Amino acid sequence: MNSFIRFLNSSIGRKYVMAVTGLSLTLFLLVHMAGNLTLYAGNEAFNEYADLLESNPLLPLAEAGLLVLFVVHILFAVLLTGRNKTSRSDKYQSNLGMGSKTVASTTMWITGPVLLVFLVIHIWDFRISKELIEEYDLAQMVVDRLRHPLGFVIYTASIAMVGLHMWHAFQSAFQTLGVAHPRYRALIQNTGRLITALLVAGFGGIPFYLFFTG
User: Fold this and answer.
1) Which of 9, 140, 159, 209 is close enough to 204 for a disulfide, judged by CB 3.0 to 4.6 Å?
2) What is the pTM of this model?
3) Could you say which DSSP state residue 124 is in?
4) Is-contact 211 146, C-beta < 8 A?
């Protein structure tokens, strides 16, 4: 147990935790995006999808697990950032050991907090609000939010931050986990870019569709 705690207190241990939780959250985002795409089929289809989730007895457990992933990922990001400020040698490496910095890698400290703010807004809008409203239509609430200029700007800007964050994070996660052999470098980079493009297009296309189609 003591060795495990020492591992978590080390920079590499914290990076491992961030890598595992980050990849898990990436998988969640892909599943979440697939569900959101039902909005293209209309409010009824989206509400049916939401009702299917709500009726799943495992939903509370899944939400609790998701909350743990977010909290642990954010907590270890804060701890790692604090250590990096005091030790230059512990700075997070990027681009699978290639040593070059990118816009995505150097703005992680910005995109992370911005996404945290968006997460709070998102949970309030589409999870907590329904507990405060007697007659709740989730699909219509999503549509109304994304058709409002402020909601449209907040959502699309946040999706851009997701893309910027993911562009670096996916590759860094595999590097931390030891998958940095030159043989796999191109595959990991291209996979990360493909997933990032899918998330940005999938999530970002919805507000544009709703906002500009009225």
Assistant:
1) 159
2) 0.82
3) I
4) yes
